[in-house]
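I have been asked to look over a protein record a colleague put together. What it holds is a sequence and that sequence's fold in token form. Please read both lines and tell me whether the tokens look consistent with the sequence. I do not need a full report, just your reasoning and any doubts. This is what I was given:
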Amino acid sequence: MKVDVTTEIVIDRPRSKVAKFAANPANAPRWYANIESVEWKSTHRVAAGSRIAFVASFLGKRISYTYEIVELVPLERLVMRTAEGPFPMETTYTWEALSPRSTRMTLRNRGTPAGFAKFAGPMMGRSIRKATEKDLTALKELLEST
């Protein structure tokens, strides 16, 4: 069963500030509750082809996976993909300026669970939605407080 979850939030900050912060993998542990650590596997540059390893906890399990940035349109769109682990995933961030001081950020996660995750497909979708809604709220609070 495929999982495809899209969440969004409006952040009262300029698109450039939101996009630059959210697109930097080093910032992920500051706003993703489940991400424990991030390690660059290639050059420390957000660019197509860059690879970043993450360690996270999800549904009570510790998981490690490496994303590769497959598309980057600065200040508009970032697409990362992983083919390894129990849940091959593609994550897409988009940023839309609603005004000079307000940005809509959309976060989409899609993939096809394998292994243990294969049997938890419907639960995975609900869990991912709940987690990403919390993560985007944390990002909003973090950026709007600075």
Strands lie at 3-11, 35-40, 51-58, 61-73, 77-82, 89-99, 102-111. The CA atoms of residues 83 and 143 lie 31 Å apart. The two ends are 41 Å apart (CA to CA).
